[in-house]
Amino acid sequence: MSLLKLENLSVTFGNFRAVDQISYSVNEGEVLGIVGESGSGKSVSSLSLMGLIDYPGKVSADELTFMDQDLLSMPEAQRRKITGSDIAMIFQDPMTSLNPCFTVGYQIIEALKTHQGGTKKELKKRAIELLTLVGIPAPETRLSAYPHQLSGGMSQRVMIAIAIACNPKLLIADEPTTALDVTIQAQIIDLLIDLQEQKQMGLVLITHDLALVAEVAHRVIVMYAGQIVESGPASEVFSAPQHPYTQALLASLPESAAGKARLEALPGVVPGQYDRPKGCLLSPRCPYATDHCRNVEPASQGPLERQVKCHTPLNAQGRPAA
Amino acid sequence: MVSFIGRRLCQALFVLLIISVVSFVIQDNLGDPVRQMVGQSVSLQERAALQQELGLNDPLLQQYGRFLMGALQGDLGMSYYYKQPTLDVIVSRLPATLELSFCALLLVIILATPLGVIAAIHPKSLLSRAVLFISTLGLSIPIFIVAVFLMYFFAIEWRVLPSFGRGETTSFLGLWQTGLFNKDGLRHLLLPSFSLAFVLTPIFIRLIRAEMQDVLQSDFIRYAWSKGISAPRIYFLHALKNTMLPVITVGGIQAGTLVAYTILTESIFQWPGMGLLFMEAVTRVDVPLISAYLMVVGVIFVVTNTLVDVVYSMVNPRVRIPGYSA
Ligand SMILES: Nc1ncnc2c1ncn2[C@@H]1O[C@H](COP(=O)(O)OP(=O)(O)O)[C@@H](O)[C@H]1O
Ligand code: SF4
Ligand SMILES: [Mg+2]
Fold first, then answer.
1. Which of A142, A182, A233, B104 has the fewest CB atoms within 10 Å around its CB?
2. A114 and A254 share a domain?
3. DSSP letter string, A162-228
């Protein structure tokens, strides 16, 4: 069953479309990978799912439903109840995401109290269980620790504990390991995937790390400049990319796996608010760009489960189809 | 933590030393103890002898040493006018000033916190625009105009509040004459503390608003929203607690300047505190009293600032000794 469904979701800041008409769905127990360079709109689109786009940002969509409930039209109070319980999110920088003024225990218990309630004793017991679950040693003593007393990896574990506190059906992880030591990254991902399988959560995993997505994601979405340029089963997208952008991402794999935001294979950067080109947004950087590309925006084509937004999708040999 | 407090205390001592030099220089250059002791009719020779006897011809450093030793023992010289030790005179006026400053500060906190927070949360709303406009206005209106204005309406026009003095006071534990525990004393406190609060409230509103706006941009606030926590909790707990850390430091220093403003407020409302005493000392050229006032105010200033730092270190978990290693 589809947990989350979005159809032509856009997020605009003034005239600027940070997220431009994206559509996808996440099923129960499914891992959806989202990849793309910095500035592609990965974070903004996931924040919009949580209802966290601040004024003057505007979110619009033909459909944005979670378990068949319309997130955009439901009363604010009802949406706030879903936020942080049924849909939870973990952020890129665990060290700055936890509130420096409150203890770890306080911040876990606060999440439990907000959505579930319980006596002081029960809440504390549950908090200790959660810390144990995410692999934090000596959880009783950690409860009274302040965030600055934890390492990055530990903080991320705490954030994961808070995220799963209310048994979410959907977990959004926005580059959960980018800010961490390379040695810790694999541990955190293992933990996330373990929990996802145990609890059969839907997981949206946003990352620079294509190797990781290839390994753990069922389906993958490639974003560029606020748009989805390619989507499909992870194995297919990575073995036979159809979009020049995906091909370039894969070509620079060792670098991008190490968290580099720039692509060696494609000079230039993702267009921002003031330099959005006409026609295909990739055309200034695309090695296959033609005059047609520079004037006419391509439409998404292909079957629903394997889409590509290019005039001349690449064939199995990695060449543009004539 | 202990070393932190130790460091702060050393700094405080150093500042006090500088203040003592300033006080000494004032007394040394402007004061003439001989004049205080003898009349006009005494001959020059006799004056010179007396000067020698009092040690006024000793090297400056030696004189300063004596001054400092005296100060350490609570001897800041005799007031020309009161013919009493200056410290005793000042201490007898201390409760009035401290009570006034305390009430003013309380008012500032009560007024500025909610207004600053609201101005930060809804910067575009009519209310925050009004708050900001009034606080800008408040910053540019001299305190004596506010005081006279308040006095005119509340004391003269409407006759609801007394216009001068401390009113009735009661003894608190035998060491403090307080106006806080009776109605008349409290009524007398209202106008002076309101006008004193008027100086600092706009500064605090702006300070809280600016800090709060910064804090609201931070990752942990966005994260708090993502946890589904209620808006009031986010604003008044998560954000305000982080806002208050810098506000305590800057605010503490500002609060020290209250002492300076008490001089004006007390003069206008004839509030029998240290500020009024200082103004009187200036008109009477009571140099030892002026110099002692500077010393005492300096001590108060240094003590408040040190206290503020210590309180800050206790409120901010990041300054504490880590009890856990990660
Ligand atoms: N609050 C905002 N106001 C204006 N532009 C924004 C805002 N937040 C993000 N953007 C812009 O939206 C684009 C997408 O950003 P983001 O989603 O953070 O990218 P990613 O997470 O893929 O690196 C960027 O060009 C960024 O500058
Ligand atoms: S449409 Fe043209 S410019 Fe755009 S990705 Fe395809 S080939 Fe490149
Ligand atoms: Mg991002």
1. A182
2. no
3. HHHTT--SEEEEESTTTTS-HHHHHHHHHHHHHHHHHHT-EEEEE-S-HHHHHHH-SEEEEEETTEE
